[in-house]
Protein 1
Amino acid sequence: MIKKYYLLSPGPTPVPEEVLAAAANPIIHHRTPEFSGIFMEVTEGLKYVFGTEQDVFVLTSSGTGAMETAVINTLSPGDKVIVLNGGKFGERWGQICTSYGVDVREVSVEWGEPFSKDQLTDELKANPETKAVFATLSETSSGTVYDIQGYGEVLAKADAILVVDGISGLGATPCPMDEWGVDVMVAGSQKSFMIPPGLAYLSFSSKAWDLVEKSTLPKFYFDAKKYKKNLEKRTTPYTPAISLVIQQKKALDIIKSVGLEKLFEHHRILGDATRAGVKAIGLGLLSKSPGNILTAVNVPAGVDGLKLVKTMQGKYMAYIAGGQEPYKGKMFRIAHLGYMGGFDVITALTALEMTLSELGYEFKLGSAIGAAEAILKENWE
Ligand SMILES: *Cc1c(COP(=O)(O)O)cnc(C)c1O
């Protein structure tokens, strides 16, 4: 058989053909009116996806670079912060802060468990000197979406700022930055933004910018003030990833033409179909508050989880993601994120069914697909 590659992971995600083609043009110089025009259109489009009136800065890095930028521009050595750690990416906020000498109070949440705004209120009461709360919109390691709106309400009444990693969630699930009171929002290009890896985005509220003015942590390449000053001149401080910016303009055109509300609904339908599919063959979800970005599925008893992922990727070329430590071999993740359509869900579930039957799991072949089809058919427009 011809082995066709199916990218079904929560980042990188598939890129639309016309967006791929946009990178095949000759490179234009970045200090030109032509590039500035494209760049400003991109920053305007990003403001739409972020749901903000504030500037959105474009960094040449993966998403983690924007996370680091958020930390080093708002904090000073010894500042106290609260980090919500419900998985690998929440953990990363803590690691970045610790690397810079920030005093981290880490709140560990079981993977897949929700964390309520009341719990956050209690944490803040117990830690009144908190400068910032670090949270994750969609924890990609567990497929969980957190109550950012609730945290925003809590922090609107506090001195601390709310910093949100929206790298996999923004653009796929609602999180309007200004309306929900998010003070620093971070995003990456290779998830819902439908372009390859390499760009990261972030924006500061005026409450957060007051901290930027006072922050004394060391910074150079990721100094937010430089990005602000240069954005006023319609450019970036250093050479941007020109081709990626041009691709992002194309992809934002698609995002704007569909509209954010429709995109959220699209992800909801794909998420519902995926969940219905895996449940129909007796599998359980890891998360108690699963998002519409990806579905984290528990490996059923008696099945070798590592072999499952290896077979799906190696034999069927269906590139779902495995579980990360400590869930390696115990869980796998099917993404329905960015430029994925209804039939991508069917592809993932077909490969999953074929793999599971090969690994000796007993179920009726075709039932996951049938359940997913029913959801897709009902919702297709
Ligand atoms: C992918 C992801 C990241 C990491 O981004 P990189 O682009 O790999 O640096 C951070 N947080 C979340 C929630 C993610 O999904």
Protein 2
Amino acid sequence: MIPASYRAVSLALLACGTAAQLEQSSYAYSPPVYPSPNTTGLGGWESALAKADAFVSQLTLDEKTQIVTGTPGPCVGNIPPIPRLGFNGLCLQDGPLAIRQADFASVFPAGLTAAASWDRDLIYQRGVSIAEEYKGKGAHVVLGPVAGPLGRSAYGGRNWEGFSPDPYLTGVAMEHTIQGIQSVGVQACAKHYIGNEQETQRVPSVSASGETIESASSNIDDRAIHELYSWPFADAVHAGVSSVMCSYNRLNESYACQNSYTLNGLLKTEFGFQGYVMSDWGATLSGVPAIEAGLDMNMPGGIPFSSATPSYFGQNITIAVQNGTLAEERVDDMVRRVLTPYFYLNQDQDFPTIDPSSSGMNTLFPQSAWVYQFDLNGTSSRDVRANHAALIRELGAAGTVLLKNTNGALPLKNPKYIGVFGNDAGDLTNSLYFFLDGFGGQYEYGTQPVGGGSGTGRSTYVVTPLDAIKARAKKDGALVQYILNNTMASTDLSYLYPPTQELDVCLVFLKTWATENYDRSSLHVDWDGDALVEAVAANCTNTVVVTHSGGLNVLPFASHPNVTAILAAHYPGQESGNSIVDVLYGDVNPSGRLPYTIAHNDSDYTIPILNLTNPGPNDWQLNFTESLLIDYRQFDYANKSVLYEFGYGLSYTNFSLAGITVQDVAGGNLSALPPAQVVAPGGNPALFESVLKVTTQVQNTGSVAGAAVPQLYVGMPSTVPSGTPPKQLRGFNKVPLTPGETKTVTFALTRRDISYWDVEAQQWRIPEGTFTLSLGFSSRDIKHSAIVCPLC
Ligand SMILES: *[C@@H]1O[C@H](CO)[C@@H](O)[C@H](O)[C@H]1NC(C)=O
Ligand SMILES: *[C@@H]1O[C@H](CO)[C@@H](O)[C@H](O)[C@H]1NC(C)=O
Ligand SMILES: *[C@@H]1O[C@H](CO)[C@@H](O)[C@H](O)[C@H]1NC(C)=O
Ligand SMILES: *[C@@H]1O[C@H](CO)[C@@H](O)[C@H](O)[C@H]1NC(C)=O
Ligand SMILES: *[C@@H]1O[C@H](CO)[C@@H](O)[C@H](O)[C@H]1NC(C)=O
Ligand SMILES: *[C@@H]1O[C@H](CO)[C@@H](O)[C@H](O)[C@H]1NC(C)=O
Ligand SMILES: *[C@@H]1O[C@H](CO)[C@@H](O)[C@H](O)[C@H]1NC(C)=O
Ligand SMILES: *[C@@H]1O[C@H](CO)[C@@H](O)[C@H](O)[C@H]1NC(C)=O
Ligand SMILES: *[C@@H]1O[C@H](CO)[C@@H](O)[C@H](O)[C@H]1NC(C)=O
Ligand SMILES: *[C@@H]1O[C@H](CO)[C@@H](O)[C@H](O)[C@H]1NC(C)=O
Ligand SMILES: *[C@@H]1O[C@H](CO)[C@@H](O)[C@H](O)[C@H]1NC(C)=O
Ligand SMILES: *[C@@H]1O[C@H](CO)[C@@H](O)[C@H](O)[C@H]1NC(C)=O
């Protein structure tokens, strides 16, 4: 039993544990979990399931296999139509930040940028707007959002497609993105499940001697699976996600798309997932075994009856049922799982036809390879952008984090002489598209609005920083000079007049390329950007640095006295220049916060990308021996100083937090383990019930309007097993405040929020003893703490 409220204690705490050696168990085994659970439609999908059931009863076995097997067609993934039943098929399109394979579509800020906004409403709106464009183009399924990679290694090439290495922040972003997407009647697909934490050797390769070298195996202990990697996927299921994409990697040496423990066990049993599991493109490596392990759809599939493009699914399923190897009931469940979200989201009613222009851009399937007739009779090249540019501009600014601001550098105050430096400032010179050439695109000249690979977008335009600065300067009657060549600007600034010493501000734009298929090999900005900053700052007392990066950068110039301001602008999408000018000039008060930690040096990041030369078939073993200790969890545990901590970010105003009160909303009779309840999507519903309510008041004590981001961190009692992070994010709010204004902010802590995964009990357990609840403006700027004992 706990009292109704607690005395507020002020405590600047940096809790630390002993650097205990984490135990390493045997990772060459993944427990079998069979049979694959049937969908029951629980969680509100019952009537959609009944429709799916009625539909399935009219299908031949061949038609059933078609519904679970991709085929060449106009989209990146295609389920063929069944005209006899008025079913137009399903169109699946990349990716998480845009409908990539489309013309007249918008390119939105990346997931990383959305996470840096810490703004639930904008994250939701981003989902809505992306899905509106999919629907306008006749695409039924968004292949996104991304929670894998989570961001275990700072070097991960796809980290920007997802949100944050913090599972709570990523989970919130998954939930709101999925709710936004599905509110429009479009299916979301949470990917890549799970442990897809590096691109290097993500798929099998063949050695010089012809041996198959298996994919990297992510060997993850049970606690880390629950508390980090699958946490946001549980949130996705809780939000009603339609599908989940299994990943390329192995888990404990078993391929993720045929791993019965994670598919049948974790996802379909423990999380109660009612939708369908689709494979990543080419990640299906068996037929019946994968199906029995829980895989429901093979993508991109194959061409029926073609030995040139075989599929483990398709006709092979028909044969396996006929020869008695596979129960037709399992196939029926696969089909029901695919069709239930389709009916639930009313995609059988007046869904737009596929825009014919999509098929012309399809590099995967030329039309000559199609076997089925897709309805391409609608209007071509539909413009689906609507007014989404406004949201893109707003979110691009909201996801920009102000890291440093000295000497009143920002906001700019009518500068008359402006210098712009760096190859990230100007227009793109090698096309607007970062997909082709093996996902290349690390071009020297041009701003970096997004990253590369299937998660990119095909921009119709990009507002560059230089364009937006020129437009603003013209209005102000200011003079803009620029050198976009990093090599030249690093060696010779003499072409400028007035010289840099007399400029009001020197704006340096830096970029970092990141893409699917490759991991980063450095945490520094690309193209010798550090040297460029040094050169400009040597000659300019007001040097403002902006980075456009698909992940974190170390910033060796951060303490340079002439570097007066630093902004991490991430990947902002097509309105990039407008977003940054809004922040630089103070039309928008920066309110982004770091969704990761910026330490001092590359060497501070102790989780590398595994990169082997001449490996044997089973040599790619990624032992996640750090377990729970990634990003700030690791730096806190090791008590290491960092440059800019997780959750950090400056504003043009100041905020204060007044006190902390904690209320027991569970009625004082909390059990350590959740009461047994029927699983609902997301897991045991008891896990999502609020048990504690934390309240504070936040005030804008400065002179301009701005948004504060108060954050709540939970420190577990000392009774938890070793290796538990000292504190973990479990609540945040984005609070817009006018000068002087105060608002009351509450945080609801759920049972899961104050539990750890007990590997013996196989349950979420609230530990005995006292917790420290810390409220502050970042993970290391704690203003108030309260000691609570939920089980006392
Ligand atoms: C990973 O852990 C296993 C023990 O489970 C060990 O045999 C192997 O050497 C480790 N691999 C690496 C690359 O550390
Ligand atoms: C991998 O092995 C570890 C250690 O035995 C275990 O805790 C974990 O649940 C296993 N994961 C999978 C996906 O089988
Ligand atoms: C799924 O439902 C079928 C009947 O449609 C039944 O035969 C099968 O046993 C069920 N499977 C499970 C795992 O409950
Ligand atoms: C069945 O799967 C095997 C293995 O991929 C393949 O060789 C064969 O062509 C497939 N059959 C059909 C009809 O797709
Ligand atoms: C049944 O069909 C499947 C799929 O083609 C095949 O892999 C399996 O070997 C067949 N089994 C028998 C007993 O014929
Ligand atoms: C598209 O239009 C053509 C010609 O009008 C017609 O033959 C075809 O059946 C239509 N296709 C679909 C899928 O409606
Ligand atoms: C960039 O500047 C360097 C050094 O001044 C010069 O060698 C190089 O040709 C320039 N690049 C372009 C594309 O002009
Ligand atoms: C810039 O600063 C460096 C180092 O102080 C100096 O050598 C160089 O002449 C300066 N360049 C210009 C154009 O002022
Ligand atoms: C891995 O090694 C290859 C070959 O040496 C290199 O090209 C690549 O950059 C490395 N990858 C990373 C992430 O360091
Ligand atoms: C800062 O800029 C001024 C003006 O160009 C220059 O004189 C000074 O040396 C610079 N400071 C540093 C530390 O580079
Ligand atoms: C960063 O690394 C360099 C050497 O690589 C070292 O001199 C410096 O002290 C390190 N900085 C910090 C803050 O650890
Ligand atoms: C943690 O860091 C603080 C401040 O830097 C220091 O006072 C303390 O001794 C450190 N504790 C440990 C265990 O290293």
